[in-house]
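quick one, 150 residues, struct below
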Amino acid sequence: MKLENRFVKWAKKEYSKKQRIIALIPQGVLFVILIPFILIMLPSLDVYLGLPEFISEPFNFIIAPFFFLPGSLFSAWSVLVQFRIGKGTPAPMMPTKKLIVRGPYAYCRNPMSLGSIIFYLGFGFLTGSISSIGFTVLFMSLLLAYIKFI
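---
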C-alpha cells in the first residue's frame, strides 16, 4: 500500500479522545523535549567552531521570554483547538475532521508552526548560539516544506 493511501485511510478513520491524547504524547516528547534539548546543546558546537555568541548576558535572559511565552502559548492554543474543535491532532495520521477557522487559525494559516518557530528562536536567544538559530531556521524550513508537500 502506498504511503499516500495509508494517510488517506488513517485520515478517514474516527479516533477516540483517548487515542488522540495518546497520539499527542510522542509529538510532545519530540517538539517540547527533544528539539529544545538539541537547541540547548548546540552552543557546544559554536565553541568547537569558534563562533562568537551573538547576544550575551543579561540581554539573553531579558529577550528569550518574549519568544518562549508567546511561541509556546500560540502552539499550545493551536493544538488545543485542533483537538477540541477539529476533533484531530497535528499528526498527519490523525488530522482534523473539521475545517478550523477560529482561535489562532483566524489569525494565521499555520499557527502551530509559527508558534514553534518563535518558541525555538527563544532558545537561540537564551543561549546566544548562532548554531541554535541556524538549526531552528533549517528545521522550520524543512517543516514548512513538509507541510506544503502533504
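The helical segments are 3-12, 17-41, 43-49, 59-63, 65-84, 111-127, 130-149.
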